[in-house]
Structures are given as structure tokens and as C-alpha cells.
Amino acid sequence: MAERDLVSEIQRVDGKGYRSYKDLKGSYRLDDWTLFIDHVQGDPFAAPSRLRLRISQKEAQFPDWTYCNRIREVALRDLIARRFWESGRMRARGGMGSGGSGRISIPRPGQEILERSSVVINQKFIEVRFTAGLPAQGRRIDGENAIQLLTEHLPVIAQESMLFPFYKEKRIQQHIWCAEDSHALRSMLDQKGLVAFVADGSVLPRRSGVDQWPLSKAIPFRSPPRLKVTVDLPNIGKVTGMGIPKGLTLIVGGGYHGKSTLLEAVKHGVYDHMPGDGRELVVTVADAVKVGSEDGRRVEKVDISPFISDLPGGLSTKDFSTDNASGSTSQATNIMEALELGTSLLLIDEDSSASNFMTRDRRMQMLVSKDNEPIKPFVDRVRPMMESQGCSCILVVGGSGEFLDIADTVIMLSSYKASEATKAAKDVAESFPSDRESETDESFSYKYARVPLSKSLDPSRGGKDVKVSAREVDLLTFGKEDLDLSSLEQLVDISQTRTVADAMVLAWQMMDGETSMAQLSSNIMDRIEEKSLDCLGEVNGERAAFRRHELIGAINRLRTLTVYQKDRSR
């Protein structure tokens, strides 16, 4: 149908009850654009209506170089989403009546460049998926404002975001090159023997916990000479910075001198960042996982025996389960679940760890004998873990020197300035030898993989077959259960959390009683790679790419989850 048909339909239902807007569902040709009205809200105060706007590549005029490979395509989609959000906020922010009347919006992108379902690009067209609050006065249709919203405001927003001539080419180039260079750098890490890289000039401190823009007047990062590495990137060229090698790296220094800030930047280095973020060339191996203690979490049949021996009362730790994990058992669980998925890098901050899990000093060893202590401290297990699992570790320490003897690399932070302190640390360890005794000399191994059972997952709620949603970045609802995901610190966008919720439903459908957690996560990620984020349910613009670590992390925290163990060798 043409624009005049849309106008005619709106005029026909003007003044009627709000539900009459449902008569508008369908597609309309608006000059060079095609508007799809997929879902109409039942009330002006309900979740907004879902619409799509499409234009041909011939009319959009984006050059082939802007989306000629996967990385550039994702970056361009991300940029268009940002531009659409900015323009929608300026030109259609609401105020046309009741509820959200007059608002046109799209999920707001954060600092990370993520694949998003809100924008689709292929050789034929560009499509933006957005929401709109169809105007109403009270609960009656406001036709005049609806016509203005869809035929005047929307075309301007679309032109500013979906047509190449409305961009400065330099902005597109910077956004695409930034993502491409970051991705290329991440792919170089393994061959260079590194797990992370922090470019000279990077700005690591953030304005606040709720404002992720770089802190003004922050000290730019500079690599210690001994850790300086030069890389040659496809767009920006040669870049120097600090390469963090494989192995055990300690980040040390006084309180408030930048230790955790560096680890935070490395933690988020699994993602590409937009120009101006300050961390554009802070990159980390893609499967790095931040772990710590998590008092009270649910644990279901995890083999934590590499870290904790059988507990009092004969409770086995080879298939450990609890509804209320302690600091030490939760941290052991978090590490083993990360290893289960094959992570190559653990990130640990002493401040968020269980102290008795990390180490025991000589005095405590003398007071509480080894026979009465089931915990095998991390300080004694980290090297066997790294050697057997091929997993490196970056550890922030400020209160215990017990790790100095076994560290491969030591980075000192003083007033946010980094220096290499490996030799100094070894000298201290030699001059002041630890008198503690290693509490285990056994190898690091675990025998069992975990297989989730679909009957233990129930995404239904009330009269609905499936009810999942994301209320916050770290709060997900799955059926009748609310999941606290605050410990999954590498979730950065609520659209990711929404997508994890949808992927949990797919995981539930794919569970066959034979497939392990690790293989299940691989199967899901392969399906998304093959079919796009749209394979996770009805088409919408509210999804963003996630990692399998956060998907399985959410499943592992379900209070209803049941698994059985099977031999990993089979």
C-alpha cells in the first residue's frame, strides 16, 4: 500500500479506541522507503509498537567498502543504530499525548561495538527495526499526530541515519576502522604469545560506575619498556603498547593506584570499542572470563575437587551441589565452569575473591592442620591448572605476597603509571622467603562433563508457554525465576541480557539428555552464526551479540537446574 493508504487508514480510525490501531498492521510504500508495522501495542501505556523501515542499497548509497566483510558490516550496523537513536531522541522524543505517544526509539548502543538485530544490512537493502509510541489522547487514537509522526518525523530520522550522503565519510571510516583494527589486534595475540594488549595513549579510568565515558584529565597509559610490543594494524598502521604474556601475571601496587582499573579495561577488552572510548586498542583474548567469589549462588554437580577436597560429613566435591555456596566453594565453581567452556584466560581480583580460597599463611597452617582444611589454596593450584588446562591468569593482588614466587610477569601500578616489576618481585621473594608449605602436589584434572536436563528448565509463566525478559543488564527473568547475573561482569548491554534470555529458551529446546554444557553452547553459537540473531525468536530489534560464557553462566544459576555427569573422554 502507498502512503496515502496509510494516511487514509489512520484517518479512518481517528478518535476510536486505541486497539483500532491494530488495523494498520501491514506494509506501506513511503516514497523510496517501505514501512512495516509488525506489532501494535494494545494501550498507550504498554510496551511500544514494533516497526521496521527498509530502503534499497541503491537509494541508501553506502559504498561497498563500508560493509564488504563481516567486521565492517557489524560496525556499520552499529553506527547506523547509534545515529538512529540520536536522531530519534532529538526529533521524536514523545509528548504527543498519553503514555509514550510520539516517541521513536531503538535500543541505545553503549561504548562497545556489538552485532545488533536492530539494523540489517545486505546487498539488497538496509533495514532498521525500531519501536514507536503511536499517539493517543487518553486511550483514543490521535490521528493527526500519528500522521505527523509516521510521515514527517520518521522520514527525517531515517534520512539522517540510513542514507550515506547524510554522513561525514570520515565518521564512518573511523568507526569501521576502529572495529577492524581492534579485531585484527585480538587475532594477533595468540601468535605473539600474549593474552592482552594495552595501547600506549589509552585512557583507562571511567567517569563513574554508571558513566563509561573516559575520565577527563586521566593519565594516558604508557607501557613499561620491557613489556612494550609493536603491532602493525590494517588501518591505523604501527601501534605500540603493553603486551601481557601468557602465564601468570600479577598486577600489584598500592590502593587507589589503578590496579583494578587496568583489570577492568582488560576485562572489557573482549569487545571492540567505539572511537573516543579511550580503550579502542585495549584488547583481550575473546574467551577471557572474570571470576570471583559469589556467596549464596546455586551450584549443580560441579567437580570442584581440584580446589576443595571432600567436605565434612562425607560430602563429595566431585559432584558438588548446593543452594547456598560459600565464598570459597562459589569461587572454585566459577573457575571450574569457566574451564569447562575452555577459557584460555582467567581474570581475578583479590578484592572480590574469598581470602581463604586464595592462600593460607604459615601461621594459619600451624593453627589449622592440613588434614582439617579441605581447601587447596589457589596459590598452590594455579600453576598446575595453567599447565594442564592451557589457561593463563591475570591476578590483581595487594595484600598477599605469596604469589610472587610463582608469577611469570609482575606489573606495578603507581599513580596509574605502569612499570615492569618482575625482577624486583623475585628479589623480594628470594630475600624474604615464604615459610608457608604447599598444601598439595597433585596434578590438576577433572573427569566429568555436565549434561543439562531440559525437564529441569521451565520458561513458562502463568498462562504463557514462554515468558523470559531482561529487566536490567544483570537481572533476567526466566519463567517464574529471577536471576541475578551481577557476577557475570562481562555482560555490558541490556540487549545482550535479553538475547541471553532468548538463547536460554533455545538451549532448553535443544537439550537432549546427551549433550554437554560446552557442546550445547557451541551448537547455539554455531546456529546464530549461520542464521543470525533472528533464529532466537520473533523478529525484533532488541537483540545484541553475547558470549557463550554468559549464556551458560545464566543457565548454571537457575535454581531448578538439574544435570548429570558423564565421562569427558567419551
What's the structural blueprint in terms of helices and strands?
Layout: H1 3-13, E1 26-30, E2 33-39, E3 49-56, H2 57-60, H3 70-91, E4 104-105, E5 112-113, E6 119-121, E7 125-132, E8 136-137, E9 140-141, H4 143-162, H5 169-188, E10 194-199, E11 228-233, E12 237-245, E13 248-253, H6 259-268, E14 272-273, E15 282-284, E16 289-290, E17 299-302, E18 320-322, H7 327-340, E19 345-349, H8 355-358, H9 362-367, H10 378-389, E20 392-396, E21 409-414, E22 417-420, H11 422-431, E23 448-452, E24 468-472, E25 475-478, E26 481-484, H12 494-510, H13 517-531, H14 548-556, E27 563-567
Parallel strand pairs: 13-20, 13-21, 16-19, 19-20
Antiparallel strand pairs: 1-2, 2-3, 3-7, 4-7, 5-14, 6-7, 8-9, 10-12, 10-15, 11-12, 17-18, 21-22, 23-27, 24-25, 25-26
Describe the protein in words.
The model has no long low-confidence stretch (mean pLDDT 95). The chain is 31% helix and 22% strand. α1 packs antiparallel against α4 (143-162) and α3 packs across α5. The protein is globular, with a radius of gyration of 26 Å. β1 and β2 form a beta hairpin. The N and C termini lie far apart (58 Å). The longest helix is centred in the N-terminal third of the chain and has 22 residues, at 70-91. The chain has three domains: 3-167, no CATH class; 289-446, Rossmann fold; 449-567, no CATH class. The protein is of the alpha+beta class. Strands 1, 2, 3, 4, 6 and 7 form a six-stranded antiparallel beta sheet that branches. A six-stranded mixed beta sheet has the order 16-19-20-13-21-22, sandwiched between helices.
